[in-house]
Write a structure and sequence with these properties.
Largest interface: A-B, 66 and 84 residues
CATH topology of chain A: Methylamine Dehydrogenase, Chain H
CATH architecture of chain A: 7 Propeller
Strand order of the largest sheet of chain A: 3-2-1-28
Number of domains of chain B: 1
Structural class of chain B: mainly alpha
Number of strands of chain A: 28
Largest sheet of chain B: none
CATH superfamily of chain A: YVTN repeat-like/Quinoprotein amine dehydrogenase
Oligomer: heterodimer
Shape of chain B: globular
Order of helices and strands of chain B: HHHHHHHHHHHHH
Order of helices and strands of chain A: HEEEEEEEEEEEEEEEEEEEEEEEEEEEEH
Radius of gyration of chain A: 19 Å
Number of domains of chain A: 1
Helix content of chain A: under 10%
Helix content of chain B: 55-70%
Distance between the termini of chain A: 73 Å
Bound molecules: zinc ion
Number of strands of chain B: 0
Largest sheet of chain A: 4 strands, antiparallel
């Protein structure tokens, strides 16, 4: 029989199981990494730069988010349609919620009312009641809705629609898609400017991020970053700068949102994808999807301090602390005011 | 050791991807980003296997052959099968053919949210015993393979295709990949369904993954060398699998309907199909139509397999219509 092929699958299957190391220990100095090509998450000790534990979860976990109260970390498994609620510090499981269909990207509205998911493979987006995760509305969105972000007033969710090269706006009040616009090849990461008037969108099929003007609903500026421009993250304690990963280029660009230009570039090989920041805001931890590693990058020196081998295709990453990008609620109002003041 | 191997492998894959993904990007094939890593890994594993075949298995055939051949002419076409398979050409073709089906299947499983319990959920005790858990999965997949292989021998239209694998008179390490492409395709569909039922994820024990594949290439090696009378009940060796490839004869008309297991003989032992008599026999099929594969090239064999399949299907229909209706 045709043995070679099945054997590879077999052996693969088996390895799933592999490596569930060591008993549990609450270590605050950790990063939680989702191994999206497996059914596991890795707990990495940021001090010793080693993987200390590999915990089984549902199949193909890609992204994670904190609950609005910040008390639970929600890990979403796309194939097994489940959400795992964890203690964000110890990574211990608190509860499991089933029947959340293909939860690829996920987020809570800043007012804490809605929980929204993008079903990347099934081409729809879902609105759930945040408090009990009851499905309120399912809207088709073709094709490959990939990333999402909320307006500060919780009235809109903006999605990148990777397969059709578009950005779509979902009105959370009307609960319908109110507009879609073309932005460029394979849009991925999406970020609302602090002024709430523009969006920044990473174009993975190109080498740039584009600025979308919400008033005119058009692309007003193109910022060249690097090949495979992908996901976008607010810099620690800084509303004016964002970091964008360039997956194909193997780099991260820091974009100044006022000057609308790249102000710094950091080399990180291996298809850098998601990022989270250390509690002091000085180190960016980056998942290197093609290298099965996470890299620790010191932002001030642009130096890679080290890398840690984790599971296959590491994607979402979480670091417990004030600068995590996985917070769903807005930063405290005084900081937004300060931004507004400096703007004027 | 295992960790440094995993390390090495992860870095090799990473570096290769850093060369290949920019090409994918340049040609605007961004929708395949997520499929490229698996494809590239399959290819590198294939190259590694070819290296092992050339460096270990082939010398073994020369040093301690089970059968002595005047020449290796009939082997050549099997080398073509091996290269087409291990260098990813046939798997890629099948991947592209099955892409729409695979999408349907994936959409279905995701919509339903298949949450069949995994082995470690049923037996939580196994959770922190990775090697043991690995073994359980390995055994389960081997069982699935065993069942398919029984079907290949038991169902006439599947045998029409599988007989191509058996028609080789000069069974060698290259014969492992000698299969009808349609046979491969059907098996992949079967496997996709099994994977949904049992659960499967790509893992990282590449060392063990390689081992699994290599056992099968090894089981076809034309050599007297075996694992011995104890270990050959644990793992399939050339002697065991050679009996499966034996040429049926009037005294042993079903000798090839034994030893179906690909990796673990335990399935043959449990289902009473194991046959250990350590007798050297000629290889091949006692059907002149299938035996005519010998001497044909790759294309010729593929066509011959399809013709046999057509006839088998036609026969099954005619025999059905010839049967008296139950009312009479
Ligand atoms: Zn057979």
């Amino acid at each position: 029989m045709s043995c070679a092929r099945w054997a590879s699958l077999v052996a693969g299957a088996l390895t799933s199981a592999a490596l569930f190391a060591m008993p549990v220990q609450a270590l605050p100095e950790t990063a939680i990494v989702l191994n999206s090509d497996e059914a596991s998450m890795s707990v990495v000790d940021r001090q010793s730069m080693t993987e200390i534990e590999r915990i089984p979860v549902g199949r193909e976990p890609h992204h994670l988010i904190l609950t609005p109260d910040g008390k639970d970390l929600v890990v979403a498994s796309t194939v097994t349609n489940e959400l795992l609620f964890l203690d964000p510090v110890t990574a211990r499981e608190r509860k499991r919620v089933r029947n959340i269909v293909d939860p690829y990207q996920l987020g809570y509205s800043p007012d804490g009312k809605w929980f929204v998911t993008a079903a990347y493979r099934l081409n729809h987006v879902d609105i759930y009641e945040a408090k009990d995760l009851r499905l309120v509305k399912r809207l088709p969105l073709h094709s490959l809705p990939s990333h999402l972000t909320f307006s500060a007033d919780s009235n809109f969710v903006y999605f990148t629609v990777q397969g059709s090269n578009q950005v779509a706006a979902l009105d959370l009040v009307k609960q319908e898609i109110v507009w879609t616009i073309d932005v460029g090849e394979a849009p991925a990461g999406i970020h609302v400017f602090p002024d709430q008037k523009r969006l920044l969108v990473g174009l993975t099929g190109e080498d740039a991020a584009v600025v979308v003007d919400l008033a005119t609903r058009g692309v007003s500026k193109r910022i060249v970053t690097g090949k495979g421009a992908h996901n976008i993250f607010k810099m620690p304690a800084d509303d004016k700068r964002v970091l964008i990963t360039n997956r194909v280029e193997g780099s991260m660009s820091i974009i100044d949102l006022e000057k609308l230009e790249v102000v710094d570039t950091i080399k990180v090989a291996g298809g850098p994808d998601d990022v989270d920041f250390s509690p002091d805001g000085k180190i960016a931890w980056v998942t290197q999807r093609w290298r099965r590693r996470v890299a620790a990058v010191e932002l001030s020196t642009r130096r890679i301090l080290g890398t840690v081998l984790v599971g296959r295709s590491p994607h979402g990453i979480y670091i417990n602390g004030p600068h995590t990008v996985s917070r769903s609620v807005l930063p405290p109002p005084e900081r937004s005011d300060a931004t507004a003041a400096t703007k004027r | 050791m295992l960790e440094s191997l995993t390390n090495l492998w992860a870095d090799l894959q990473g570096r290769l991807l850093e060369i290949v993904q920019p090409l994918i990007h340049r040609f605007g094939l961004t929708e395949f980003y997520d499929d490229v890593p698996a494809g590239l890994e399959t290819l590198t594993l294939g190259i590694l296997q070819i290296a092992v075949i050339l460096l270990i298995f082939r010398p073994l055939e020369s040093l301690a052959p089970a059968q002595r051949w005047e020449n290796r002419k009939l082997v050549r076409v099997d080398v073509v099968y091996t290269l087409l398979n291990k260098l990813g050409i046939i798997p890629l073709a099948i991947f592209l053919i099955l892409l729409p089906l695979n999408d349907e299947l994936m959409e279905f499983t995701r919509t339903v949210g298949f949450v069949l319990p995994t082995v470690e959920q049923i037996i939580p005790w196994l959770r922190d015993k990775p090697l043991l858990l690995f073994l359980v999965y390995f055994l389960l997949y081997d069982l699935a393979g065993y069942i398919w292989h029984r079907a290949q021998h038991g169902l006439p239209w599947l045998w029409a295709l599988h007989s191509l694998h058996h028609s080789q008179r000069q069974v060698s390490t290259w014969t492992d990949d000698r299969n009808h492409v349609l046979d491969d395709l059907l098996f992949d569909i079967y496997l996709a369904i099994v994977a949904i039922l049992i659960g499967v994820q790509p893992g990282q024990f590449v060392a063990i993954l390689l081992l699994g594949r290599l056992i099968e290439a090894f089981s076809h090696v034309n050599t007297r060398f075996g694992f011995g009378r104890v270990l050959d009940k644990v793992l399939v060796d050339p002697m065991f699998h050679r009996t499966h490839h034996a040429l049926a004869n009037p005294a042993e008309p079903h000798i090839h309907d034994t030893n179906f297991s690909a990796v673990f003989p335990i399935w043959d032992i449990i289902f009473r199909t194991a046959h250990y008599d350590y007798k050297q026999r000629d290889s091949g099929v006692d059907d002149p139509v299938a035996d005519a594969d010998n001497g044909k090239g790759f294309i010729g064999q593929q066509i011959a397999g399809l013709v046999r399949l057509g006839r088998a299907i036609a026969r099954s229909f005619s025999s059905r219509s010839a049967r008296p209706t139950p009312a009479e």
